[in-house]
C-alpha cells in the first residue's frame, strides 16, 4: 500500500457548492443577456421599420432602414448597459457574501 502524506491529503479540498451555484447563476445571467442581445435589436429593427417609420410616419423604404438601424444600435447599447449593471451588482453581492464567511 502507498503511504499518503498528510499535506497531500489536506491539499484536496471538498467541493464548494456555493461556487457551483454561483457559476450556475452567472451562466443563467449570461445566457439571458445573450438571448436579449440577439432578439431585442433584431425585433426592434423590423418592428420599427415596418410599423413605426413606414406605417405611422409614412417614410420611404430607404429612410426607414436608416432610422430603424439607429433604434437597433441604441437597443444594443441599452442591453449591454443592463448586462454590465447586473454583472457588477452580482459580483459585488458575491464578494460581500464571500467576505462574511
From TrEMBL:
It comes from the Eukaryota. The chain crosses the membrane at residues 27-46, 66-88. GO terms for biological process: vacuolar proton-transporting V-type ATPase complex assembly. Its main location: endoplasmic reticulum. It is a multi-pass membrane protein. Keywords: Cytoplasmic vesicle, Endoplasmic reticulum, Membrane, Transmembrane, Transmembrane helix. It is found in: Endoplasmic reticulum membrane; Endoplasmic reticulum-Golgi intermediate compartment membrane; Cytoplasmic vesicle, COPII-coated vesicle membrane. GO terms for cellular component: endoplasmic reticulum membrane; endoplasmic reticulum-Golgi intermediate compartment membrane; ER to Golgi transport vesicle membrane. The keyword Endoplasmic reticulum applies. Belongs to the VMA21 family. Required for the assembly of the V0 complex of the vacuolar ATPase (V-ATPase) in the endoplasmic reticulum. Associates with the V0 complex of the vacuolar ATPase (V-ATPase). HAMAP family: VMA21. This is Vacuolar ATPase assembly integral membrane protein VMA21. It comes from Balaenoptera acutorostrata. The lineage of its organism: Eukaryota, Metazoa, Chordata, Craniata, Vertebrata.
